[in-house]
Structures are given as C-alpha cells and as structure tokens.
Amino acid sequence: MTVAYHRKPVLWDIDYAAPAGQLIGIIGPNGAGKTTLIKACLDLISKASGSVRFYGKAYKAQRRLVGYVPQRESVDWDFPASALDVVTMGRYGQIPWCLPPGRKHKEAALHCLDQVGMADYAKRQISKLSGGQQQRVFLARALAQDAQIYFMDEPFAGVDATTESSIVMLLRQLKDKGKTVLVVHHDLQTVPEYFDHVVLLNMRIVASGPTAETFTRENLQKTYGGRLTLLDRAAQAIADGEKR
C-alpha cells in the first residue's frame, strides 16, 4: 500500500500482515506516517495504490469487526452527547436500521463504561470530562463494539499514570480474549513492557516482528536516524527488559 498527499508519498510500499491475538506497537518519529497508516486501513483517507484486507475482505465488508480509538485531539468534544451516548454508538452495528438503541444495548454500553472505571460518569456531558476520562470513554466505545481488531491512535497521550496503567490492563484483557490490538505509541521506554510485537515505521516499514527480536538499537537507529539521547533511553529499556 502507498499513500500520498498532493502526489507526495507519505507511506511507501507498505506490506504487512498483523499477527492475530497480539498487542502490536506502531513506533516511529513524528511525521513517519503512523496515523496515516491507521486512517488508510480504515478507508478514512485514499490510497495511491494497494489494498487492505481484514480476514480476506475489504474494510467496508468487515466494519463491525474493527474498532477504532482516534487521537483525542481529532474529536469534537463539544458535541452534545453524554458518556453513555458515546459508548452506545459502538453498538450501532448491532442495532437494526432506523431503530433507537434498546435497553440491552444501553446496559452493554454501561457495562463497558464500568470496565474502564467510568460508570459513575455515564450521564456526564463529554466536554465536562478530563482528558484522561475522555480517553476512557472512547476506549469503552471500542469495547462496546466487541470487535476482533482494534486500532488505537496514541491512547496514552495526555493521560496520567493511573489512567495509563488502566489502559494497559484493558489492552491485555483484550489480548487474553484473542483480540488483535494495534497501538500508535511514542514512549520507547515502555515498548518492551507493553507490546508483544512491533512495527517500526518511517514512511516505509523499517522492521516488524516480535518485540524481543525487533526492538533493537540497530533498528531504532534506522527508524529514528540517530537521535542518540532517545536511542540511549530506548536501549536502556531494552536492557531492562532482558534482565526481567
């Protein structure tokens, strides 16, 4: 797959098959095309060439099987909806056309809010929530969809340590249920701890594979172009992971 903006390639010749039932980190510098990769997979932007398949079919045929948590900054938080309304939207693929969500779907949405510690905020307007709370609501919406594959674009951005720990726990629970989760992530120090598998991206896929084999200083050097302070911290994270 190749993606271009105004004829300038942003992603070039991407060829990748995500392993099922894994936590996958999409890692790379700013401008590497990480968000573009997710949006192209979900048909949110056009491709210059190539295609994406979910279980052998195009996204539009498998939409119900794919969950998406966008960057928080890309959401209109002033939209007049409660936390429960937002999470219930994740059930729409299971609701007959033109019918409002029934009690069963609202109860399922409330359960998902409870899973992320937000049940007490179900009736709160989303603009009144903190950044971390908003992120939890969008995670709950993805849970409500009960997808098989989840794309999450920087779910840890702007959240406190407690929320980050809760998100990591949730991701591991999804993995334990056999779900596949692809996460755009920036903190190199936590990559060995969080992810089973990594994709190192900088317009092209530099390397991909199991974290223990792929998340190496050499591959990071190729991906980030020798930003030594960043790489030294990542190298220490790798070493710490090997000790554990």
Overall pLDDT score:
86
Query: Using only CA atoms, what is the Rg?
Result: 18 Å
Order of helices and strands: EEEHEHHHEHEHEEHHH
In the sheet with the most strands, the strands line up as 4-5-6-3-7-8
Compute the separation of the termini in Å.
37 Å
Shape: globular
User: Number of helical segments?
Assistant: 9
Instruction: Sketch the major β-sheet.
Output: 6 strands, mixed
Percent helix = 25-40%
Structural class: alpha/beta
Strand content is 15-25%
How many strands?
8
Extract low-pLDDT stretches: none
Structural features, described:
This protein has about 240 residues and is an alpha/beta fold. The protein is about 35% helix and about 15% strand. The protein has nine helices and eight strands. The chain has a six-stranded mixed β-sheet, sandwiched between helices. A two-stranded antiparallel sheet has the order 1-2.
Task: Write a compact overview of the structure shown.
With 244 residues, this protein is an alpha/beta fold.
Record keyword descriptors for this entry.
single chain; 244 residues; alpha/beta; 6-stranded mixed β-sheet; two-stranded antiparallel ribbon; 9 helices; 8 strands; globular
Question: What is the topological layout?
Answer:
Layout: E1 3-5, E2 8-11, E3 23-27, H1 34-41, E4 66-69, H2 83-88, H3 103-115, H4 131-145, E5 149-153, H5 161-176, E6 180-184, H6 191-194, E7 197-202, E8 204-210, H7 211-214, H8 217-224, H9 228-243
Helix pairs in contact: 3-4, 8-9
